């Protein structure tokens, strides 16, 4: 039995437009996730700054603890309940970006904390700061 690809080729332009939108959403969400992840990851490095540390921890607990689909539903269907209406593209980018930012922040925090103490001392001896 042969597969019939005629329906696929009949709407091939719609499939290409969908692929372009997918790449656009992915690129925007990746950029947003990296920026948020960097900020939150650095914010979770110093527990002495209680407010920032706790704010970042609550962000991580919420966005890593709820399913992505639920978060996307909240962005798309929940925000209009408060009078905030965003286009579907913006809801997708925000949802995916904020969700991925929670995971990127743990990657950033773990990467910074994995730098050996001897390397930090060597960097300071060369005149670099820890900031």
TrEMBL record:
Keyword Transmembrane helix: yes
GO BP term, pick one: amino acid transport
Transmembrane feature ranges: 20-40, 52-78, 84-104
UniProt key word Transcription: no
Top-rank taxon, per record: Bacteria
Alphabetically ordered keywords of this record: Amino-acid transport, Cell membrane, Membrane, Transmembrane, Transmembrane helix, Transport
Pfam families associated with the record: BPD_transp_1
Cell compartments where the protein resides: Cell inner membrane; Cell membrane
Family: Belongs to the binding-protein-dependent transport system permease family. HisMQ subfamily.
Annotated PANTHER family: GLUTAMINE TRANSPORT SYSTEM PERMEASE PROTEIN GLNP, MEMBRANE COMPONENT OF AMINO ACID ABC TRANSPORTER
Descriptive protein name: Amino ABC transporter, permease protein, 3-TM region, His/Glu/Gln/Arg/opine family
Organism annotation: Bordetella pertussis CHLA-26
